[in-house]
Amino acid sequence: MVMKMENPDSEKNHIISALVEHKPGVLQRVAGLFTRRGFNIDSITVGESEIQGIARMTIIAQGDEKVLEQVTKQLNKLLDVIKVRDLEVENTVKRELCLIKVHAPTEKVRSEIIQYANIFRGSIIDVSSEALTIEITGDSDKINALTDLLKGFGIKELARTGPTAISRGGKTI
Amino acid sequence: MKGGQALIKSLIDKGADTVFGYPGGQLLPLYDMIYDSDLKHILVRHEQCAAHAADGYARASGKVGVCIATSGPGATNLVTGIATAYMDSSPVLSIAGQVPTHLIGNDAFQEVDMIGITMPITKHNFQVTDANDIPAIVNSSFDIALSGRPGPIVIDLPKDIQEQELEEYRNESVEIPGYKPTKKGHGLQIKRAAQTIIKSKKPVILAGGGVISAGASNELKKLSKLINAPVTTTLLGKSSFPEDNPVSMGMLGMHGRKVANLSVNESDCLIALGCRFSDRTTGKIDEFAPNAIIIHIDVDPAEIGKNVDVDIPIVGDAKIVLQSLIKLLKKDSTPLNTLKWIEHVKEFNKSCIPRISFENNLPLKPQQVMKELAQALDEETIMTTDVGQNQMWMAHFYNTQKPRTFISSGGLGTMGFGFPAAMGAKVAMPENDVVAVCGDGGFLMVCQDLATVKEYDIPVVVCVLDNRYLGMVAQWQKLFYNERMSHTHLGEVPDFVKLAESFGVRAERVEKVGETEKALKDALKSGEPTLIDIIIDPEEILPMVPPGCGLTEIVGEYKIEREIPGEIPYKQTKKAHEGGD
After folding, report:
1. What is the domain range of residue A99?
2. Does chain A have fewer CB atoms within 10 Å around its N or its C terminus?
């Protein structure tokens, strides 16, 4: 779920990883808490974790340390939240999935787009006479670079998941 | 057994002897089952009063207070009461009716998203989707509401679930892996705190509501005595420490006592217990306790460092942490350097006891009313207040001695809280006298519940401090808005005595010196619910710290009862404090 896809470099980026109970209303509790404490969310991704019944949330947000500390503590107070960790940006791998539907009315345009997709290790997952859909995975910068290139052809639709993340090495949160 | 019966059984098993409620369409099955049950139900006349009464019940007794309202408007009428309980960490369990599960989300008649609405104002909330879960949900609700930092819980109960047959009544709790409140406190941090305290020359203890909810009043007394530290409290902490003790400095903050505000300013070691440093307590944050090392003990880790930067944080239950701290302090034989300080504070304290005798003034001064209240009541009496001047007069001028005898809406500042809270407190503690001190504005918001105290014969005494003004707002208009009294005069109606009498409630009007004391004594003797309409001087204002100012910048002179030579001048710069004791 992408709530706001901006990524200005001015404020410090935070990657918050949380294990939460996988049940209705938890996303609302977490998202509501961020809003209430004045912390802007760039994106939230939620999905199953390694433990049954427990979901992992990855929240990308920016703000100052003091507000972040308060938000983390408040998150910990939610009964549905089991663990929260602010991941170190440099010791974290972060990936995002993006689907891009590009305007491609001619053979020539289609082959050009396919070449770009190959360079970025994306794959074509749907073709029709007037459009191509590309799937690409990577960090946000890589996805931004490809979408910038494709803008010239006309992007008809774009869907980004927002990053999900995991810390490097053997440690867990 | 049906869902509704399971709910009633679980409530009774958990010790909820009385609930406050108001029926409605989606609660018809539950109320039909209550009809046959042993659950004592008090029908209030507005759902908000049910929530406040449950809150008063909880705060007076330390048990969970329970209220019930129907779906939709019934549930939303509870919201103010739930938010009040949330801000003041009160264990209130609200049970809200809900439309049948198959209609949820259809905008059915009297449907409202109570879970969504109460998410930010509850410690947790549950929507029941299977009647078999009810015992576990009720058990968990009680445990969560009371443990750690107490707080309100909502159970959203759809109509069809109330009628669903349980397969089996299983008396269990919901397992919550994400909930483990820290009780003990970090050993090393407690040691650091002890070392700091031993080195300090001017320690001050600031006690908040956490001391009362943890039942740590005895430990607080012991600590104060052991290290010669004077004690000030927040509004919610009032009654945690006996205020007739010479080292009690009364309340701190915007409407705090001068001795408290100035001593905190001067202190070199502030021990904050179970409090959250609200803006009304600290004044301008940059100027709060500028010379002190701050030790903050609180059960909620999120309160540490939220408003005030803390030097030694200790997360834990106030009682358990204090016990460990006292043990450590007793072991240490380093002689304390604090005698001079405590003697100084005691003297200073005596020099600025606010004047409460105004025997020649008419209309009555509120201070004089407070004095007569104190004369008529004993230390077991549970006082509740409304919000505004009446609350601050009580906090400032009325001394409490025992925990849980002062109940007030602090964080949310909910007008209309005092009277229903008194009703709940009286139900919880029938042996204690219960007196509500309200303003005329706040009381009028909830006056319909005079019917409840009459019908159920709940003998609370309501003192309406009647100045025909929304006094606190009027005070700010006078002081900060060029005396432009925009919409704060309440006019000439109602006649509170006639109003009460129309409900069949005993009532009396007081206008002269001495009458308050007599009216109160008569009321308590009568054993009937009573309203006393006390006509007071609308001109009287409180000494206060203007918003955004430091705690030493008190506006409005004290009417000092006794002057002692050598008293610290009113406004002292921080520099001057550093020189000597």
Report:
1. 93-165
2. N
What CATH number has the domain bearing residue A49? 3.30.70.260
Answer yes or no: do A79 and B116 touch at CB < 8 A: no
Interface contact B177-A29, CB threshold 8 A: no
Tens digit of each residue's pLDDT (9 = 90 or more) over B205-264: 999 999 999 999 999 999 999 999 999 999 999 999 999 999 999 999 999 999 999 999
Domain contains A83: yes
Distance CA B125, CA A73 (A): 19
Q: Is B167 a known active-site residue?
A: no
* Set of chain B residues whose Cβ sits within 8 Å of the Cβ of A69: 305
User: Tell me, what's the ipTM?
Assistant: 0.86
What would the two tokens of residue B420 be? 């229903």
Q: Do A79 and A97 belong together in one domain?
A: no
Q: Which two tokens stand for residue B31?
A: 């109320």
What are B440-452's pLDDT values in tens digits? 999 999 999 999 9
What's the domain count of chain A?
2
CA distance B474 to B540: 11
Is B109 among the catalytic positions?
A: yes
Q: Residue B127: list chain A partners with CB under 8 A.
A: 25
Q: Is A76–B179 a contact, with Cβ atoms under 8 angstroms apart?
A: no
Given A70, A87, A104, the domain boundary residue is A87
Which residues in A lie closer than 8 A to residue B301 (C-beta atoms)? Answer: 73, 76
Nearest-CA neighbor of B92 among B440, B393, B414, B403?
B414
Chain A residue with Cα closest to B306: A70
Verify whether the Cβ–Cβ distance A69 to B176 is below 8 Å: no
Q: In angstroms, rounded to a whole number, what is the distance separating the alpha carbons of residues B121 and B85?
A: 9
Same domain, A111 and A59: no
A70 & A49 share domain: yes
Delineate the domains of chain B, giving CATH numbers in brackets: 3-163 (3.40.50.970), 187-351 (3.40.50.1220), 366-535 (3.40.50.970)
* A29 & A64 share domain: yes
- Would residue B423 show up in a list of annotated catalytic residues for this protein? no
Query: Closest to B178 (Cβ–Cβ): which among A69, A70, A82?
Result: A82
Backbone phi, then psi, for B376, in 5-degree steps?
Answer: -85, -20
Q: Count of CB contacts below 8 A, A vs B?
A: 35
Which chain A residues are within 8 Å of B305, Cβ to Cβ? 66, 69
Q: Are residues A102 and A42 in the same domain?
A: no
Residues A72 and A116 in one domain: no
Of the residues B472, B496, B508, B515, which is catalytic?
B472
Indicate whether A6 belongs to any domain: no
Distance CA B496, CA B482 (A): 31
In a domain, A25, yes or no: yes
Catalytic-residue membership of B343: no
Q: What percentage of residues in chain A have a pLDDT greater than 70?
A: 94
Facing A82 at nearest CB: one of B115, B177, B300 = B177
Is A134 a domain residue?
yes
Give the integer Cα–Cα distance in Å for B22 and B77: 11
Region label for B334, one of left (φ > 0), alpha (ψ between -120 and 50) or beta (otherwise): beta
Task: Give CA–CA dist B57/B280, Å, rounded.
Answer: 26
